[in-house]
Specification:
The chain is an alpha+beta fold. It is 19% helix and 32% strand. Strands 2-3-1-4 form a 4-stranded antiparallel sheet, with helices on one face. The protein has a two-stranded antiparallel sheet with strand order 5-6. Helix 1 packs antiparallel against helix 2. Bound molecules: adenosine-5'-triphosphate (ATP) and magnesium ion (MG). One of its GO terms (molecular function) is ATP binding. One of its GO terms (biological process) is regulation of nitrogen utilization. This is P-II family nitrogen regulator. Belongs to the P(II) protein family.
Length: 117
């Protein structure tokens, strides 16, 4: 059986983006979404500086991670809209990871793949 390709989009960004991301993803009609509170840091190791000492111990800041699983052909459009929503041009605007996903199963119906979304 040939299944259509699925991807998981993970967006990690500042907590202040919670409401706007939720409404954007809802408008884009994703089949569902998961918001997780996480701790993280990126290239600046949790500081607000562009140049960080290599010996500086990374500091983890509270962030949100938003996960949503969609058909792979929808990824570009969704990622583009999320980028537009998050962009300020400053450090810490967030990061988007796209992973290919093997399968999804809706427990109630036993459906697999895109039918289960
Ligand atoms: N390489 C990575 N691996 C895992 N998680 C990461 C990675 N880079 C960033 N993250 C996660 O994404 C969050 C947001 O990262 P952030 O926007 O600061 O990325 P950045 O690469 O430092 O870009 P910028 O220089 O614009 O700040 C981090 O707090 C962390 O949770
Ligand atoms: Mg950063």
């Amino acid at each position: 059986m040939v299944m259509s390709k699925l991807s998981r989009i993970e967006i990690i960004c500042d907590m202040s983006k919670f409401a706007s991301l939720k409404s954007l993803l809802s408008k884009l009609e994703v089949g569902g979404m998961t918001f997780i509170q996480v701790l993280g840091c990126g290239a600046e190791k949790g500081t607000k500086e562009y140049e960080v000492d290599t010996n500086y111990e990374m500091e983890l800041l509270p962030k949100i991670e938003v996960q949503c699983v969609v058909e792979s052909e929808r990824v570009d459009k969704i990622v583009e809209a999320v980028e537009k929503e998050l962009y300020t041009g400053h450090i810490g605007d967030g990061k988007i990871f796209v992973l290919s996903l093997e399968d999804v199963i809706r427990v109630r119906t036993g459906e697999h793949g895109k039918q289960a979304l």
